[in-house]
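Q: I have two molecules that I believe assemble together. Could you output structure tokens for the complex as a whole instead of separate predictions?
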Amino acid sequence: MSSQTKRRPTGADTSLTFRTFLALSVGKAAARATQLAGRGGGTSITGMVARRVDPHILRKIVLDRGEPVVAITGSNGKTTTARFTAALLRGEGVIVSHNSAGANLVQGVTSLAVSYASIRGRLPGGVLVVEVDEGALPQVAPEMAPRALLVTDLFRDQLDRFGEIYAVADAIESVAAALPPDAALVVNADDPMVATMASGREGTRVTFGLELDRSTDQITRAADTIRCPRCRADLTYRHVYLSHMGDYKCAACGFERPAVDVAVTSLEVVGLDRTRCEIRTPSGNLAIEIPQPGVHIAYDAAAAIAILVGLGVPLEHAAESLASVGPAFGRLEKIDADGRSIVLAFAKNPTSYNTTLRALAAEGEPRQLLIAASNTLVDGEDFGWLWDVDFELMAPKVERAVVSGLRADELANRLKYAGLSPRKMIVVEDRCDALEAALDGLPAERRLVVLSGYTPLIELRNEMRRRGWTGRYWEV
Amino acid sequence: MSEPSMGEPSRPPARSRRRPEEHDHRPLRIAHLYPSLLNVAGDGGNLIAIARRAGWRGIPVEVTAVEKGETPDFRKFDVVLFHGGQDVEMAVAAEDFAKKAPSLREAVDDGVLVFAVCAGLQLLGHRYISNAGEEMLGAGILDLETRGGQQRFMQHAACEVTIDGATETVVGFENHSGLTELGPGAEAFGRVVAGAGNNGRDGLEGARAGNVFATYLHGPVLPKNPWLTDRLIEIAVSRAEGAPFTLAPLDDEIECHAHQVALAKAMANRGRRTALEPARLVRGLKR
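A: Yes, here they are, computed for all two components at once.
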């Protein structure tokens, strides 16, 4: 990607080739077909089909027309941060197109552009907010030339897909370093490897993080980067906020957390319901209450606010905008199943698992559990990381666990070694049968906690939709 | 339901309900090397497997984390676990490990059981030479040498392992690019059934010399190979107590199912390298 801007003003002559027109038509038709067939929102198929017809379709409707893009990448928090960003921008009167279903590989991002574009390839104007898988970013970014790039954090996530976390960091860094000077780079100051990313680059840079006078977490074995990114000595932490994120310093070389532009200065998590925080921004302080629980929610909110700061969009209505953003599908999403209560929790790596387990533990959960993992292209092949999850803390509470998914075998073994008696477990690989089994044995006063990776969660949620308990996952 | 239920698994015997023929064991002393540096891919599950399976037989364990800068006398341990890590962490560990190596060598001469995975295997060898030609010295406890390779082996894998005349299949997940060659002083840990093994060429997996076992298999390997875990515990306890010791069998239905699924996956991949798409993308960008 060259540093010179390749944007042409919107409305310039961007004659649509027949191939592009065909790609748009076929992609949109594919989306309708999958939706009519009840097979999901067509969140990846649209892009897959459109790219097959015209491999440059994304470039043509986004880059060539100079559409402003906010790209959100990193290991955790992409979906929630994208939702916050979209809500904040809409609250300030900006038109937003946004991939809300979390399909974030190149096909998913292309789907977003194709489905929002008119049949002539024109987007509705305003800003395109896209979450981009950290592995797909190097391919996606040059086709979109983001006006703002946010890196949420970097955790060990799907080592079998990426090899090593350092390769992921290098890939994101080279995209960040190549951003033109008029683009904004927004980074998490509390994550040592992210905080230093492309620090030599010219142009807008906004940092976000927590500035609390207490720790909200401790370093666990799921922690990834606790060595100094400059000299590799061990970092020491004044406060640890979430896994390896916190206020850190290297005693050996003096490297420390950079100044935080958008800082969470107070934080209160209320049960499984809400998060209250105060956020300091360059233009004043904001008091915010979000109907989702967790320290990570505060991070995501600060990140989204930092994006608006980076874009130079004023924050006049931030509190109202965020007050109505409920959980994305499967982020401790509450579902009423004909009078029975289900909490859906999406967990895909040790950090998201441990974060979720901690939020649940505060409520004495999970007691009745449906837990699922499947090996797919999106979810990865190697599930060794399950052994880095602190299931030991959860095991004593669990009264009954239905273990499901294509890798139910590994999960069941992990839970046994975490101290959950095999007598309390049943293995039901099929997701729909598992849901049935879990609800069958659910005592009236209990809620069912569903902990699941991406693919089985969508399967379970689709089953709940068929039963009329919830809307479609891509519409949450 | 597509999957039969797990049947009626037995509750692992609690420590207090020991069978009469079992005698008192002193705690099995385990050194866990660099838990905060070498902690990828769930290798910590190996420690969990040993601790649980020993505990279910009434053998308590005492785990000591041995981090950077600490140089204990390794002869006071019964088991030393040395796991895999990413390149950066491995380099940090390698520098420190030089200071631990003399004591570990003495312990190995005393018959202390060492179980090493991936980076642990490489650092127990003579040296690791990276693609850039940089040399990282190992302990020389195992007669092997590793060079950086061009491709990364990432797949389910299986090998056959023989311990005390009994041969069983061991399954796991390999994720390494180093190419290891064994010298005459080391035998292989296993013979490759599916996967790349030490170098994708000679059909050998890992290395073994006496009570030192080293493998490239993550997974983590011990939880889904209860046979191997039990043999390792028996070797360690026999040495600690100075008398041959055999573990009572457990109900391993869940473990065996996990083993079978992993084996089926490894066999399905046999003869095919599974380089996964996004890894190629990440590397592609660094050209």
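A: One point stands out. The longest helix of chain A spans residues 18-36.
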